[in-house]
Amino acid sequence: MASHPKTFFTPEEYLRLEREAEYRNEYFNGQIFAMAGASPEHVLIVSNVVTQLNLQLRDGPCTVYSTDLRVRVSYTGLYTYPDVVVICDELQFADDEKDTVLNPSLIVEVLSPSTKDYDRGEKFEHYRTLTSLMEYILIAQDKHHVEQFVRQPDNRWLLSETNQLDGIIELDSIGCELALTEIYNKVKVTGRSS
What is the pLDDT of residues 132-147, one digit of tens each? Predict the structure, then answer.
């Protein structure tokens, strides 16, 4: 009799497996999803953003983390690895292992062809339930284009976007900015910016 592969995992099972895994996996609703590798452009954009934010936040209360910091969205049960996370309060952890945080102030995702719809849609729905989250930034890797979502006092989200290479994204929630010339420094953009 052939055994059937396990298709439903508890969060505890996921975390046990994930802590021993060589590759990162997301978790939602009993399922584990392997994360695809990133392109050189994707990695360079993440590095550029982290560099800019670190320089501006080094003396303040906020701290920048990249790619390997797992975030749990408590309300929906999603476990994920955003490209960049900024936390401005004391770190809140999901458990005693202290490898899964609960309270990002700002999240940055670099869009890939395979994830851009998810990052803009369902993943953002999850993120919006994080009461600590004040801003969500989406960065295209194939063209000069940045989308900024800012939480408003009435809990709505305001979208601003720019595709101008001389544009600046003001990150009021953490008191700094992202210049598109720095985000895309040394990145070979293949698409047209409008």
Answer: 999 999 999 999 999 9
Tokens of 18: 């994930």
Q: Do the bridges between strand 135-140 and strand 106-111 make them parallel or antiparallel, or are there none, so unpaired?
A: parallel
pTM: 0.93
User: Rounded to whole angstroms, how far apart are CA atoms 95 and 184?
Assistant: 37
Note the CATH number of domain 38-183.
Answer: 3.90.1570.10
Domain ranges of the chain: 38-183
Strand order in the sheet with 146-151: 63-66, 84-87, 106-111, 135-140, 146-151, 157-162
Integer Cα distance of 53 and 151 in angstroms: 20
Tell me if 41 sits within 8 A of 187, measured CB to CB: yes
